Amino acid sequence: MAADRAARGAAVEAAARRHLEDAGLRWLAGNVRYRSGELDLVMLDPAAGSLVFVEVRYRRGGTFGGGAASIDAGKRRRLLRAAQLYLSTHPAHAQVPCRFDVVEADGEPPRLHWLRDAFRADDG
């Protein structure tokens, strides 16, 4: 069961990456893990001149709200801390404006919905 879930997560993240690349973003890193949290995708948006930290959320159905609804204050804090650690270890991007996007996926096959600037560092 856990292997199926991991495989599903990897497939959805790969689909999200392709979707964002097709929209013009450039992939920098994926599954960046720190003790305080994980970054699913790190992308560069050349058109906006922004570094984009992307959280990918999959829900089989929409009964309990979309994937973005599952990103509570604690999850946002962990993502922010992971983003800060990423920036501290990648000084070339330290002065680039950043944003947090969410790619929601639901259903089978997964339908993707990209939420640009889904939340901000000061959202609590």
TrEMBL record:
Domain of life: Bacteria
Record Pfam families: UPF0102 (PF02021)
InterPro entries found in the cross-reference section: Restrct_endonuc-II-like (IPR011335), tRNA_endonuc-like_dom_sf (IPR011856), UPF0102_YraN-like (IPR003509)
NCBIfam families to which the protein is assigned, alphabetical: PRK12497.1-3 (NF009150), YraN family protein (TIGR00252)
Family: Belongs to the UPF0102 family.
Name of the protein this chain belongs to: UPF0102 protein K5L01_13205
